[in-house]
Amino acid sequence: MRGQLTIVGQGLAGTCLAWRVWSRGQNFRLLHLGEGRSTSVISAGLLTPVTGRNLNPSWRIAEFLDEALGFYREVEGALGEKVFHEIPILRLFANSEERQIFDRKNELLRPLTEAVLAEKDCPCEAPYGGVIWKGGGRLDTRRFLEASGVFFRDLGLIKTENFDPANALNVKQATVMCTGAAGLGGGPFDFLPERRAKGEILTVRIPGQSEDRVLSRNGWMVPLGQSLFRVGSTYSWNDLTDTVTSYGRSQLEKLAGSFTSLPFETVEHVAGVRPIIRQSRPVIGSHPENDNLLIFNGLGSKGVLYAPGVADRLAAYLCERREIEEDLNLGAFLG
Ligand SMILES: Cc1cc2nc3c(=O)[nH]c(=O)nc-3n(C[C@H](O)[C@H](O)[C@H](O)COP(=O)(O)OP(=O)(O)OC[C@H]3O[C@@H](n4cnc5c(N)ncnc54)[C@H](O)[C@@H]3O)c2cc1C
Prior knowledge:
By secondary structure, the chain is of the alpha/beta class. The protein folds into 3 domains: 5-44 and 141-194 and 278-333, 3-Layer(bba) Sandwich (FAD/NAD(P)-binding domain), CATH 3.50.50.60; 88-135, no CATH class; 197-274, 2-Layer Sandwich (D-Amino Acid Oxidase, Chain A, domain 2), CATH 3.30.9. Helix content is 28%, strand content 26%. The protein contains 8 helices and 19 strands. It has helices at 12-22, 39-42, 61-79, 96-104, 106-109, 141-154, 246-259, 303-320; strands at 5-8, 28-32, 46-47, 50-51, 56-57, 84-86, 89-92, 113-117, 130-133, 137-139, 158-160, 175-177, 197-205, 214-216, 220-225, 228-232, 265-274, 283-287, 290-297. The strands form 4 sheets. Strands 8-9-7-14-15-16-13-17 form an 8-stranded mixed β-sheet. Strand 15 and strand 16 (228-232) form a beta hairpin. Helix 1 (12-22) packs across helix 8 and helix 3 packs across helix 8. The longest helix is centred in the N-terminal third of the chain and has 19 residues, at 61-79. The structure holds flavin-adenine dinucleotide (FAD).
């Protein structure tokens, strides 16, 4: 690695990279814009092994799930507090087609299936039954980022500073841009084919609602404790601001109502932008015009699953010159 490493951005990407470099005993400085200024903070923090209408296991799930779980345990050891909570994720089949897809993919999905539930065993209206996935959980992203920030601040490694992307191509020392959605669609990596998507999310209070599992069907409802639940999330590709909308709120309140018959109250409504690059896969590597400038981006909707493993590969590239795998490498996007 040339000179001192600078990591720009303290979302999931930048924070996981900081831990991976720190655990290798290397020095770095972590720049960010200030507390709470990231999509990662508002994320529900869900780690779900199987997602989407087609019930596909997440890309390279076997490796990245183990790496993520191991990483969060290690970080909890260093921080002295729990940030990752194992919790069953009950996917309710939305219709008979989804149920048929599940049956058809039985062999593929069996290693990720904890139990298949009949309608009568589901906690809300679920005429097609559901499946509980194995290995799911929730990262308390806000605590993970805050506590990591304090940890690195105590070591003198964090600085609040706005990094100017206009000068990025002139950097003389290794600099990794982990700037999420702000780092796509413009700036030095504007050649990456991005498809950023805004998402809105609610926190609702539902007194009396069981808090023993995540419910998922065209969205999800995640228990946070003390009768609070996070409900999300919407997708929109036109408006890429973090402004909440009344349409988003009504969609999400309807979603909450599909998981419970109890009355609820909305206590928070926030929005953020998912950093999505083509194929919804993370991307790391050096800029073609200056190999001191690097990127770690494209965590999409699955930052909790992918950030730890991808950060490890990038740290190995930076500190040990280990080659970056082709399917993660920025080079794949260059002609
Ligand atoms: C509504 C919603 C719900 C989601 N739910 C989940 C979920 O349940 N599970 C899951 O795994 N993922 C979820 N995601 C996706 C997840 O939030 C992202 O994958 C993840 O946050 C991306 O992390 P990041 O570090 O790349 O970007 P960010 O979290 O946006 O971090 C970027 C950082 O860069 C900093 N920065 C930007 N520009 C500069 C600059 N010029 N100078 C200095 N610093 C800068 C910012 O301040 C910030 O700290 C959700 C996303 C949304 C929108």
